[in-house]
Structures are given as structure tokens and as C-alpha cells.
Amino acid sequence: MSGEQVGEQADGLSYEQARDALAEAVRSLEAGGLTLEESLKVWERGERLAAICTEWLEGARARLAAAMANRADTDGADGQDTREPRNGAGRRNGG
């Protein structure tokens, strides 16, 4: 991670904030009218914002994978949920 990316994260940007700022950078570049130097600065900020978004998404994927692995650990070896139903639904009555 570059020093600039650390600086962006130090600003405490959420995924949504970084995504919205990235979208604004894209709109600005697409609209044109910027000097070459301004365009380069907007592009560089967009790259940093994209990296922040990627980092957030990778973190979310890791959290989901961990949650799914945790759930698999509580399921039976065959992947079937072995926990008792909370309200008794699904239990068979003994004959």
C-alpha cells in the first residue's frame, strides 16, 4: 500500500464515501474541460479511491467467508444443519 493510500484511509473514508468520490472523479473526467495537470490529479485520486474500494470489498469478502466457515463448523459433517429447531417445527411425532 502506498503512502497516499494510507493518507486516504486516515481520512476514514467508508466504502460508500470512496465509491461516491470515485464516481464523481469519473464524471469530472468524462465531462472534460480540465487541464492535463488537473486531469492527472483527478485520475490519481480516482486510483487511490478505487484501491480503497477494493480493500473494503476484499475485507467484506473475507468476513463473509469467515462467517460461512463458522456456520459450516456448526453444521454436521455432511453440511446439514444439526441444530434443533427453535419452535419444534420439523420434529416428527413418535408413533
Distance between the termini: 65 Å
Structural class: mainly alpha
Radius of gyration: 23 Å
Inertia-based shape: rod-shaped
Which helices and strands appear, and what pairs or packs with what?
Layout: H1 3-10, H2 15-31, H3 36-74
Helix pairs in contact: 1-3, 2-3
What can you see in these coordinates?
By secondary structure, the chain is mostly helical. It has one domain: Helix Hairpins, CATH 1.10.287. About 65% of the residues lie in helices and about 0% in strands. It has helices at about 5-10, 15-30, 35-75. Helix 2 runs antiparallel to helix 3 (about 35-75). The termini are far apart. The relative contact order is 0.11.
Task: List descriptors.
disordered N terminus, 95 residues, Helix Hairpins
Short summary:
With 95 residues, this protein is mainly α.
